[in-house]
């Protein structure tokens, strides 16, 4: 047989169960983001599994078609070999005098021997043809059964994986929707500026990574609670969570003076404040991963600065090493995607 495994993928099923067995805390942005990313990864894995299975089955189907074509060719060759012998046998039965068999029937010894030899040849040839035909028939039946099993398995596998993918897609959409609703409750106008809610979907940060520094479009930038401020989705979600923790400590959200900067804005500040702004096209502000803060955080070793330094990493936010000295920028904080992915 073709060595096909049983349909379905245990990995996809385990991932599906892993994303549905435990409901995330609807008020915990970090947990919601993590669940959204898990659901998105499970969907990607299941989709890859389906594509891989389809490719495997397509190759097996192609190989089977080659075998069937070889079988058809073999049948044609057998027919060519069979036809002269069949014509000879037919002529013997049709001639009333017995044709070349007449001497044998009339008792002519020499002629009888020749006729007997011809008869032996005919019988031997007939037996070989029948044996070949039998083998070809068995091979044909085997290939036909394999073809039927292949097609049935292909349909079943695709149906099962499609159901799993649909379930994962719905799960991912549900978690992202819950995340967006939580952001709205916390004062984030997800659809601000006419953009879609997908801008705050942490599973779509790959879209933001496709654009050059400072040239991110609005539909990949998620608004913050502070009007006019926005970041890449994962950084924005983490910052809102950090700001809520800050609010519980100080009674108000974090004060923000700057967030994402487009290329023109970065060029402007670079020329206005030489030595205090990165070269245009190289700033983390242009990636939607940095903020400049106020409200006390901008004062080195203030209570606010120290609290943020001690707690920022729990949300993926850090005060980069260079900002402690060269240039000295206590107000500048950055989101570390690698650190955030571990939370």
From TrEMBL:
Signal peptide: none annotated. Residues 29-63 form a coiled coil. InterPro entries: DD-CPase-like (IPR052179), VanY-like_core_dom (IPR003709), Zn_M74/Hedgehog-like (IPR009045). Residues 230-337 form the D-alanyl-D-alanine carboxypeptidase-like core domain. GO terms for molecular function: peptidase activity. Residues 19-28 have a biased composition (Basic and acidic residues). Keywords: Coiled coil. GO terms for biological process: proteolysis. SUPFAM superfamilies: Hedgehog/DD-peptidase. It holds the Pfam family VanY. The keyword Transferase does not apply. Residues 1-28 are annotated as: Disordered. This is D-alanyl-D-alanine carboxypeptidase-like core domain-containing protein.
């Amino acid at each position: 047989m073709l060595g096909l495994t049983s349909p379905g993928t245990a990995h996809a099923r385990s991932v599906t169960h892993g994303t549905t067995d435990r409901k995330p805390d609807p008020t915990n942005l970090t947990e919601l983001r993590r669940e959204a990313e898990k659901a998105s990864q499970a969907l990607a894995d299941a989709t890859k599994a389906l594509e891989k299975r389809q490719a495997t089955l397509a190759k097996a189907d192609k190989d089977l078609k080659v075998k069937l074509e070889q079988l058809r060719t073999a049948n044609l060759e057998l027919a060519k070999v069979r036809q002269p012998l069949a014509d000879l046998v037919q002529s013997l039965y049709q001639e009333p005098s017995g044709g070349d068999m007449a001497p044998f029937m009339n008792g002519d010894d020499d002629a009888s021997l020749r006729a007997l030899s011809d008869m032996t040849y005919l019988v031997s040839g007939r037996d070989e043809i029948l044996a070949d035909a039998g083998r070809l028939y068995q091979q044909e039946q085997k290939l036909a059964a394999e073809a039927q099993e292949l097609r049935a398995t292909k349909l079943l596998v695709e149906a099962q994986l499609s159901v799993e993918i649909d379930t994962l897609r719905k799960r991912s959409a549900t978690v992202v929707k819950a995340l967006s609703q939580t952001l709205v409750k916390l004062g984030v106008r997800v659809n601000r500026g006419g953009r879609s809610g997908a801008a705050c979907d942490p599973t779509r940060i790959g879209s933001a990574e496709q654009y050059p520094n400072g040239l991110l479009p609005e539909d990949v930038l998620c608004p913050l609670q502070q009007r006019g401020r926005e970041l890449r989705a994962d950084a924005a979600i983490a910052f809102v969570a950090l700001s809520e923790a800050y609010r519980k400590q100080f009674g108000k959200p974090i004060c923000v003076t700057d967030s994402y900067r487009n290329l023109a804005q970065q060029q402007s500040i670079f020329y206005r404040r030489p030595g205090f702004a990165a070269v245009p096209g190289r700033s983390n502000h242009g990636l939607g991963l940095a903020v400049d803060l106020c409200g006390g955080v901008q004062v080195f070793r203030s209570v606010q600065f120290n609290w943020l330094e001690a707690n920022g990493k729990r949300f993926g936010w850090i005060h980069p090493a260079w900002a402690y000295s060269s240039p000295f920028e206590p107000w500048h904080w950055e989101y570390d995607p690698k650190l955030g992915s571990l939370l």
